[in-house]
Amino acid sequence: MDEGNDLVDFAVDYAMKKGATYAEARYEHQEQENFILKNGVLDALYVGQDRGVGVRVLANGALGFAATNMRTKSDVRAIVDDAIKGAKASRRRTKITFAHEDAITMNWSVTEQRKLADVPVEEKIAEIQAVDRDLMQLGFKIAARYFQLSDNRIQKYFSNSEGSHIRSYSPRLRVFYFLTVLEGSDAEQTYRNYGWSGGWEGIRAWDLKNRVLEEARSMHKSLTEGKKSPEGKMDLIAGPQVSGIASHESCGHPTEADRVLGREASQAGKSFIPPDGLGMRVGSDVVTVVDDPTVENAIAYYVTDDEGVKARRRYLYKEGRVTEFLHNRETAAAFRTRSNGAARAVNYNVEAIVRMANTFVEPKDHSIDELLEGVKHGVYMKSFMEWNIDDKRYNAKYAGREAYLVENGEIKHPVRNTVVELTTPAFWSAVDAVGKDLEFEAGFCGKSDPGQALDASLGGPTMRLRNVYLR
Amino acid sequence: MEDLASHLVEKAISLGCQDAVADIVSNRSYQIRFAQNEAVISNRWRESTASVFFVYQKRVLASDIKDLSKADEAVERLVKIAKGSQENPDYAGIAKGPFKYARVRPDPKVLSLDEGGKYVEAAIGGALDQGAKECAGSFWKYEDEHFLATSNGVEGHDHRASLYLSIRALVSLESSGHGIACATKLSKFEPEKAGHKAGRIAALAKTPKSGKAGRYTVVFDPLIFGSLTDQVGGRLSAWAVLAGLSPFGKKIGKRIGSSQFTLYEDGSAESIARKRFDAEGVPTKKNVLVNKGILKTYLHNTSTAKKFRTKTTGNAGLVAPEPHAVFAKPGDRSRDEIFSEVKDGLWLTNTWYTRYQSYVTGDLSTIPRDGIFHIRNGDVVEAWKDIRLTDNLIHLMKNVEALSATTEQMMWWGEVSIPNFVPYARIKDVGITKSAE
Asked: Does the complex come out with an ipTM higher than 0.90?
């Protein structure tokens, strides 16, 4: 790490000598281990040691970025020259500026009760194989089983020309699984994604085996007992997985300030919220959605972002109104505000841009029974399979995986492929009650070019939506 | 670098591995991202990586070694880890070389290109000329050099370079168009034409009305048809079939498209993803995937080929087979004929966020973006917005009823993950849904 630190400090000093008005450099050392268990067979084990330096400069009012994994001074000198040359060649009419931030010097790290590096790969494989074995003993046909376990131990050193020097260590653990259950020619498929910032203790915190078995049983029940989902206007009880994806897709993404300003227009798109949209009503009074990097053990936990700004909770929608955009220093300057610490990069070799962290619907005080009590006729959608949303984040679709008919407050038989296809305001305005059962799942959030699939948490409690069209 | 690849392979074998592959990759790519009609950042990379694949008694391990100065130590550590891993009974070895490769070299004018600002300006200018107000996108000069060695006698070198530009032009938030320019030769690179197309669609898409759900005959512009053929190509990886991530399982020899629909895959053909060899060193070649609607093969590496009792198709990735570039056979219609034969239908120009309710059935939805047009008797009568294509991948391919006579090379962020050479396509009975009020 010291070698990387020296190169980072050298890069910043050299960039300022070469004419940058601002310079920052990031050294990252990511140690990755992941494997795929496909239909009970270990497909391949991947072990990576990824490290390098990325440099970003402001010169002539434009941004230049360059990166290398060759860690010598001459290589770092070359990427600084590249970054400055690229910035100067931009010939921008409007000059990019950064919002003010105080310099920070700090070290932070995430605690591991049992270090990921100390867990032999054999033990990790055995853990997933035990889940797979139990799955095979359920007594019905699971045509395809796919598990991926990955851990990533990320060390960073960030320095900038304003005097910030930040060292951090962030260990992360993930499990993704995908199942196909067959009944005759009919199939039910599911995927789930769990994430953890911390050590191997995460695998126990998830209660993975029971969750996977429960999911497989519910898939079989959908296939054998499931009926066509009712069509028409009715109430919807949306489980934590559904409220989580909705908070990410139709609250988090549209409040990213770079998207609002059009910087992502060609890729991830823009936003239905205009730059002057703070205060705009998008939901009912009970809807509050936050993005919070400081949720301990959530996969997107961090103390400082990749521009050296301290992380804090951001209220995106509060009591149904847009209250805050997610900012990095560039967008904060454009909006004449301060960054709220949302700049992140997936690795040393890409620029930090505005990203969500752990996004969730703020829980309230209803139990699930209380939420169900008021439903005469509706659907309880616990989870989804297919989903998508348009690039202005206005038209979303969630198609049910595990869902049940609800009549007079009672859960009845499973219903298949319930479709919720609503606009963002229609979805959030219909919420009349929010539960207290906050849960998180992990996701990979895609954005930028080159694409940066970044760790994110999607969370929420069960919610009740009144009188929405389902099919 | 060539020596290093061979050295790493020899090192792994000396430590007890039976199979070893090392691909030393040098990346010198360069990019300009632009938005609001000007550059927002310039990105450059100077990276060298050894992508390695080691097998010890059927224990398969893959890695990227980033610190080449300590590559020997890395190999020792990796082989030790491989020895502690588990057998993959499905592993069936790597291809036996040596092989002869086609002689191809990158365009020196592309290699020497050091600044892309004028191509960005040309694309933006092209879009603004057509009435666009705001443009965003990316210009790329891709350059990477591969030195491959395997323990089965393969030694290969491949220097790849190409140019790419993607531009989205907007008149307003809901009136936009997209254009793509791809070339391996500087003289064939047409960013201004891509800008024109994006701007023209954006201007035509002014004041869109909310669309109507139903089933329509739809003209697919090459960019959105490319996203569908990209789905077909990717789901034909034998690995996807085995993982339950494909609707094409047990469909070899069966109809999965109309008789108009012929699709092949070819890493050796001219494209911005042209490769001399796959990850095992097997020379890339043309593979007919779908012939007149009948599924002919999955994409294989040596291991999946053995499982399916066939031969590798030259599509090995480090672990799983993957397509290099996909080509739809063009049809016999002019672009105008494709449109003129539509009595009451739609023209879709782009899409994103394709997701499946079931990969094994192919039930999916995807969200058209940029220009969406209602067509009557071949003419655009109005622009639409806020619709979703909700259908089934095989149903869509079976309903391809006409293709234009020329194809374009398409590749785009996320949706068209590799080059797809595609014509305009007319597909009947396409499901369109929309959000409820």
From this structure: yes
